[in-house]
């Protein structure tokens, strides 16, 4: 059992043992809390699958990002690495609904995992809503959501919510010491601060060696960047061709670094607040926008430089 899953498991097992189990569940919490891992294990318990056969069990179906286009689909068919789409599309929901017209294969229950449900295209979300309104007998939905507010209210209203809490820093430190023993103290501290209670995010920050990126961001916040040299350093550390996961991690790291500067004693907190709001906006756009890495790095650097004017405290 992963850290922080105790309450979710208790609620799920009580529901399994009850007379009438709800047909749709919303697994809500920050990215990196193990919600997808929970969903697969819960689906296994639901259909009575063994420990080793859930990934290919005929009554457990997972919908996630597919290939971006036909060219990438051919790569997947050939067993080659492929570029993923930035959303879950209506064709995937339609294919799932076609499958639901038949009975479960091995028993009387099937599980549909949608990960992440908050990246459903609008048309796909509307199509899914119809299945949630009239669920086939024996079909149960598990919707993984990092940002539940992005889901249609009508979808949220039809789900029972399982909330996954963030993990305290002390537990995060022990976890990283165990799972990433080679990380130095600076990297581990930066990962814990940036991850905001998400073990998966912390491990990702360590794997991506974002400790130096965090320090470069703090340097801009501390000193400003009148000659653009620090922004150039930041861009170099982010990399010329970062993938989507690295871009998301960098944006979340920037938000965390800026949030740490929000202090009641600031002479003028507005630049920090405005910078944080802009970073939240960029993070929200990231799943669907194709950002140019160099321009994004400079934009992040410029936002940090703008916030540097608020670094002085009112009391000096």
What does this structure look like?
The longest helix has 16 residues. This protein has two domains: 158 residues, Rossmann fold, CATH 3.40.50; 103 residues. It is built from 14 helices and five strands. 50% of the residues lie in helices and 8% in strands. A five-stranded parallel β-sheet has the order 2-3-4-1-5, with helices on both faces. The model has no long low-confidence stretch (mean pLDDT 88). With 316 residues, the chain is an alpha/beta fold. Strand 3, helix 5 and strand 4 form a beta-alpha-beta unit. Helix 13 runs antiparallel to helix 14.
CATH class call of the largest domain: Alpha Beta
The CATH H-level superfamily of the largest domain is P-loop containing nucleotide triphosphate hydrolases
User: Could you say what the CATH architecture of the largest domain is?
Assistant: 3-Layer(aba) Sandwich
Amount of helix: 40-55%
